[in-house]
Design a protein that fits this description.
Elements: H1 18-51, E1 61-67, E2 86-93, E3 99-106, E4 115-120, E5 126-127, H2 134-183
Antiparallel strand pairs: 1-2, 1-4, 2-3, 4-5
Length: 188
């Protein structure tokens, strides 16, 4: 059942007050800031964090390595490990064809023979992936920026609405002081 009141804030009405128009604009602007501004703030922040992340040293490069044994399962909490990876032996060839074997971080329970990517420095030693965690950090800061922007917009709208309600009350009091005495019954 339709009430026909879809855009009632924007319709012409001789009884519409200036505060009604101000409220209509506040709803429109707040809605646009929530729908467009908050996501844009999140994306811009995430991209900024990603751009300011660690840079790969010039002599580092990636190679494809082969897992030589099945990777162990997830490590217990008391062992030195990462939350999502375990150490296992991998083998790779350098540009000159030399084979190397070393421990590298891989996903738990990865079968032997599976290819993984490792980072090597100028002396062909395995190094930590410089981009590790950067994507998650960018997503986290982006989400926080979007949430913070949405919270600020909402708080601003609520404060504006409270001030508008107070202004309406004072207008009503002023008008009632003028009209009120005319409505009282006359005493004889």
């Amino acid at each position: 059942m339709s009430t026909g009141q879809t855009f009632w804030r924007w319709r012409r009405n001789p009884l519409k007050r200036g505060t009604d128009r101000a409220e209509a604009w506040a709803v429109l602007i707040s809605g646009l800031l929530l729908v467009v501004g908050a996501p844009l703030a999140g994306v811009a922040t995430g991209m900024s964090v990603a751009a300011s992340g660690p840079r790969v040293p010039a002599d580092w490069y990636r190679v494809s390595a082969v897992l030589m044994e099945k990777a162990p399962g997830p490590a217990p909490a008391d062992e030195v490990s990462r939350s999502d990876q375990v150490r296992a032996t991998v083998e790779w060839r350098t540009a000159d064809g030399t084979r190397h074997r070393e421990l590298a971080w891989v996903m738990p329970n990865t079968p032997a023979g599976r290819h993984t990517t490792v980072w090597l420095d100028g002396s062909d030693r395995i190094r930590e992936n410089p981009e590790r965690g950067l994507r998650m950090r960018a997503l986290t800061f982006g989400a926080l920026a979007a949430t913070g922007t949405a919270a600020l917009v909402t708080a601003g709208f609520v404060l504006f609405h409270v001030r508008l309600a107070r202004h309406r009350e004072s207008q009503l009091d002023r008008e009632w002081r003028i009209v009120g005495p005319k409505w009282r019954p006359h005493r004889t």
